[in-house]
Amino acid sequence: MKRFAIFAFMASNSMCLMAQTYNESDDFTEVAIVILILVLSVIMVVHMIYELFIRKNPFAPISLEEMKAQREAEGLPVLMSQEEYEQCSKLMDDEYAQWTPIPGNVNDARLYTSKKEMDHAIDTFNQIRALKPTDKNLIDICNVYLSVGADGRKRQFNGSMVLLILVALFAALFIFIAGKEGGYQMALFVILMGGIYYMSSLTPTFLLFDRELNGSNGKGCMGAVFAGLGGMILGARTIKTTTKWSDGTTSTDYDNTEHTVSWVIALIVTSIVIFTLFIWSFFNYLRNYVFYY
Predict the structure, then answer these.
(1) Cα 125 from chain centre
(2) Residue 100's beta-bridge partner residues?
(3) How far is CA 73 from CA 68, 69, 132, in A?
(4) How much is the pLDDT for 14?
(5) Shortest CA distance to 157 belongs to which of 293, 288, 8, 24?
(6) Predicted pLDDT at 201
(7) CA dihedral 220, 288, 115, 157 (to 10 degrees)
(8) Which of 27, 135, 215, 229 is the most exposed place for a label (fewest CB within 10 A)?
């Protein structure tokens, strides 16, 4: 294990040396890139925190008492009119028609699978709230629709758990190997990038439904990369050579070159992935918080 830690340290040091050489040749470019990454990181984190913890839930349920109280406060009749009832019913029927049908379902079950459908639903339910329905059956049906929207808005981690584990391991390696000579700062950087990656990989459930219907999990190539590295390591062989000498004795040698090479390649690739974590995070952020695809 210590040998592997040394390999990781050597790989990371090589990358840092390359970066230092580049910095000496073009300091302005490096400063510009660092500032750009910092600015984008702050924008991403602020936006994601707003979406995850601050933004008001547009699919909050409504209650009969709440609607009656609002009508009374605005001087409207306590009970809705027949015309208002028909308007609400039509809005809910039109809303359900906008949802994506589940293929093969005989009961015409539907789901939200796009940002367009979610935005349409928010607009529809705002119109229904403005009408202040007081029919209990109508409100119950409306709350069922709202619960579907609330479930579709919930987020689930859809990134690489293996990558997060590797982030933790790399942070521990930096602390263990480099100690006080920059190790803590690098470990903190890796952990922060891992946190941003985790937040950016929180995907709305309606997008997961869409990807599932289209036969994709939306995790990209990261899983395939780590699966390939794992297969390479597990497939490495130890070559055993037995030599019989003229005096009748034998000796056995074991060649672990394949194991060493596979681990070195895996650590180099992993180092590259870790140090380009911001790129993966930014890509996930665009998918899950901006363009919703």
Answers:
(1) 28
(2) 111
(3) 9, 6, 12
(4) 41
(5) 288
(6) 96
(7) 80
(8) 215
The SS3 call for residue 3 is helix
Q: For CA atoms 221, 226, 229, 230, give the dihedral sign.
A: negative
Q: Which residues contact 91 (CB under 8 A, 6 or more apart)?
A: 124, 127, 128
- φ and ψ of 100, to 5 deg: -85, 125
| Site of tokens 């605005």 | 74
Tokens of 186: 């690098």
Distance CA 66, CA 72 (A): 10
Instruction: Tell me whether residue 289 is exposed, middle or buried, using C-beta atoms within 10 angstroms of its C-beta: 0 to 12, 13 to 18, 19 or more.
Output: buried
For residue 271, give both structure tokens.
Answer: 């180092």
What pLDDT is recorded for position 2? Answer: 41
Q: How many CB atoms lie within 10 A of CB 275?
A: 19
**pLDDT by 10-residue block (mean), the chain, 293 residues:** 41 45 64 88 96 96 96 95 97 96 88 96 97 97 96 95 90 76 76 94 96 79 79 90 85 89 88 88 96 93
Of the candidates 73, 88, 75, 179, the residue with the CA atom closest to the CA atom of residue 131:
88
Q: How far is CA 44 from CA 37, 115, 278, 286, in A?
A: 10, 19, 11, 9
| CB 73, CB 168: distance < 8 Å | no
What letter would DSSP give residue 56? -
User: How much is the pLDDT for 220?
Assistant: 64
The answer to whether the CB of 112 falls within 8 A of the CB of 148 is yes
Cα angle: 286, vertex 288, 293; to 5 degrees: 85
